[in-house]
TrEMBL record:
Protein name, as recorded: DUF559 domain-containing protein
Domain DUF559: 220-283
Top-level lineage group: Bacteria
Gene3D superfamilies the UniProt entry points to: VSR Endonuclease
Pfam families noted in UniProt: DUF559 (PF04480)
InterPro entries found in the cross-reference section: DUF559 (IPR007569), Restrct_endonuc-II-like (IPR011335)
Organism: Goekera deserti
């Protein structure tokens, strides 16, 4: 069937024309509509990459999935399932796409695109550039951190990206994101918190290994060794089963060693300014 994905994503009109489905079957069956005219097998996991795959079937020649949408192919999935799909289009290609698509018109060389399971996606290096140009700083740094951590990019490639982009629109944003990227970050929330701290002039040591009287105590997300202040982001897995008790025991050991521990959860991400104020107060109290 024309424009039919092997993983169960297809253009409805093509399936009907090929005799695979009737209009009634398509309408009454449980196929999931991704974007206008494109459907997916209901058994497929629903994530942003699934919607990107559907949009990929509609792309005109020369265009590609890009930005933080393409990051899903480079071990840095940052977009939610229903967030608009970012498409990079050369200026000469006039295409607006369906409603759920965000089109960015800019130069796009064939070497910037790779075909993955039938979907044209920008390369890791090109994705890094577009994410830094198009997304808020926290999102951009989070994607770069994840790509570095996964080995999809290295520091030399990022530095070269900035050098070769000198004079291009957006290079200032790219330089800023690259300067803040750090492979030590272990999650997107950690990256977001670190960006907020650094922008406030509070530069922590990431993944600090704490020792007391020559013995290892714990490794924590962020630390200010001189003031003996720590900040730990607790994701969902920290609140499951025995992990709660293990965390409490670990924090007790840190406090017994003279450290002040600030614990941050997903709810705190809604107000990172408040997190910064908590850190400022803690540091001031220790000086």
């Amino acid at each position: 069937m024309p424009r039919h994905h092997l993983n169960g994503v297809f253009i409805g009109s093509h399936a009907i024309a090929a005799g695979v489905l009737t209009r009634r079957q398509l309408r009454e069956s449980s196929y999931r509509r991704l974007v206008h005219g494109v459907y997916a097998d209901p058994g497929l996991p629903v994530d942003h990459r699934l919607y990107c795959t559907g949009v990929g079937l509609l792309l005109p020649p020369g265009a590609a999935i890009g930005g933080h949408s393409a990051a899903a192919w480079h071990d840095a999935p940052s977009a939610g399932p229903r967030e608009p799909v970012t498409v990079i289009c050369p200026p000469e290609v006039r295409w607006s796409g369906p409603r759920q698509v965000r089109v960015h018109a800019t130069d796009l060389r064939p070497s910037d695109v790779e075909l993955v399971d039938g979907t044209p996606v920008t390369t890791a290096v090109r994705t890094a550039w577009d994410v830094a140009v198009l997304e808020p700083l926290g999102t951009a740094v989070g994607v770069l951190d994840a790509m570095l951590r996964a080995g999809r990019l290295d520091r030399e490639q990022l530095d070269r990206l900035v050098r070769e982009g000198a004079g291009r629109f957006g290079v200032t944003r790219v330089r800023r994101a690259v300067e803040m990227a750090d492979a030590r970050a272990e999650s997107f929330p950690e990256s977001w918190v670190r960006v907020a701290l650094v922008l406030a002039g509070l530069t922590p040591v990431p993944q600090l290994r704490v020792r007391h009287r020559g013995r290892f105590v714990a490794r924590v997300d962020f630390g200010w060794p001189e003031e003996k202040v720590l900040l730990e982001y607790e994701g969902d897995h920290h609140f499951v089963g025995r992990q709660i008790d293990r965390d409490d025991e670990r924090f007790d050991r840190l406090e017994a060693a003279g450290w002040l521990v600030i614990r941050v959860s997903a709810a705190d991400l809604r107000d990172l300014d408040r997190v910064v104020r908590r850190v400022l107060a803690a540091l001031a109290a220790r000086r």
